[in-house]
Design a protein that fits this description.
Elements (H helix, E strand, L loop, with lengths): L1 H9 L4 E3 L7 H12 L7 E3 L4 H10 L5 E5 L2 H13 L3 E5 L5 E4 L5 H13 L11 E5 L3 H12 L20 H17 L2 E4 L18 E4 L6 H4 L6 E7 L2 H9 L3 E2 L1 E5 L3 H10 L4 E4 L14 E2 L2 E2 L4 H7 L22
Parallel strand pairs: 1-2, 3-4, 5-6, 5-11, 6-9, 8-9, 11-12
Antiparallel strand pairs: 4-14, 7-8, 10-13
């Protein structure tokens, strides 16, 4: 929310925020802080409710001239279509199926940590989650073995406990969606290397927890490799060389982020250029900054957040011509 709010305010806009119906409390609490900070009434506003009624009414309102949306690509498409009927400006940060690519020459210990944090941080519920792990064939089995062993050490439990590394899924429909995708992957022939079910650990109780799940033997054409799961589910895909890594990495409808693990600077630069992703990390993952533009290719969104580019998303360019001539030429006099 703040990625949109800050530049909009800096550009001189007033804002109406509609948070997700699943988690409005933090936005309402933030609005109280805005009021305490002394913002004039009406500059920052919050309305709550469900998308089909409140969201649609907001997008279609004639006084709304710009729509900034974060969510799934399916919902984003509907918002985009509704905004287009009113010729409104739109920016969108949508889904992803980001490739995290590990080459044989990488520092494998660092890559291992980057892969784990890339998919299991926030229980995989981030748009930039590195949900497709591409591993070079020569190190595939070795890296997979280390990965599974490392992932087994993750601590699940109460998200309010600082020691917890993987918390619950946001809501019950999302839990059911993740478990459905796990079943789909198994039906497609993917091999379950870790997890693959709802968590039954004592520390998880009857909460909405899914075991960290790793699938091997995944083909990029499988649904588990093509569709956003938004959960702690990782698909491992082998590749032969740089060209195949690029081809597999780009062979999805999304293009939000990508990770590249290599010690070859030329390879890193080529991969950064060729991968169709709004953010490419080399030998790191999930690093963000308010100074760095953030957004995606293809169905991952429109426009950019953060950086100078984001201010422009909330402004109009106007040309003003002023003549200082003391005499305006007579158009009917031939010169």
């Amino acid at each position: 929310m703040t990625w949109k709010l800050a530049p909009a305010l800096a550009a001189g806009c007033t804002i109406v925020i509609k948070p997700s119906e699943h988690c409005p409390a933090s936005t309402l609490g933030f609005a109280e802080l805005i009021d305490q900070a002394g913002f004039p009434p009406g500059v920052v506003n919050v309305v709550t409710g469900f998308g089909p009624d409140v969201g649609s009414a907001l997008v279609e309102h004639p006084l709304v001239s710009k729509v900034a949306f974060t969510g799934s690509d399916a919902t984003g498409q509907r918002v985009y279509e509704a905004a287009a009927r009113g010729m409104k400006h739109v920016s969108m940060e949508l889904g992803g199926k980001s490739p995290n690519i590990v080459f044989a020459d990488a520092d494998l210990d660092n890559a291992l940590k980057g892969v784990i944090s890339g998919i299991f941080a926030a229980t995989g519920q981030t748009c930039i989650a590195g949900s497709r792990l591409l591993v070079q064939e020569s190190i595939h089995d070795q890296f997979l073995e280390k990965l599974v062993a490392f992932a087994k050490t993750t601590r699940m439990g109460n998200p309010m406990d600082p020691g917890t590394q993987i918390g619950p899924v946001t809501n019950k429909p999302q839990l059911e969606k993740i478990l459905q995708y796990i079943d789909i992957a198994k039906g497609e022939g993917a091999r379950t290397e870790l997890g693959g079910s709802r968590a039954s650990r004592p520390e998880c109780g009857d909460g909405w927890f899914v075991e960290p799940t790793i699938f091997s033997g995944v083909r990029n054409s499988m649904r588990i490799a093509q569709e956003e799961v938004f959960g702690p589910v990782l698909s491992v895909i082998p590749f032969k060389d740089d060209d195949e890594a690029i081809a597999i990495g780009n062979d999805v409808v999304y293009g939000l982020a990508a990770g590249v693990w290599t010690q070859n600077i030329r390879r890193a630069l080529v991969m950064a250029e060729k991968l169709q992703a709004g953010t490419v990390w080399v030998n790191t993952y999930r690093a963000v900054s308010y100074l760095s533009p953030f957004g995606g290719y293809k169905r991952s969104g429109l426009g950019r957040e953060s950086g100078q580019e984001m201010i422009k998303e909330y402004m109009q360019v106007k040309s003003v011509w002023i003549s200082t001539a003391t005499d305006v030429p007579n158009p009917f006099v031939q010169r």
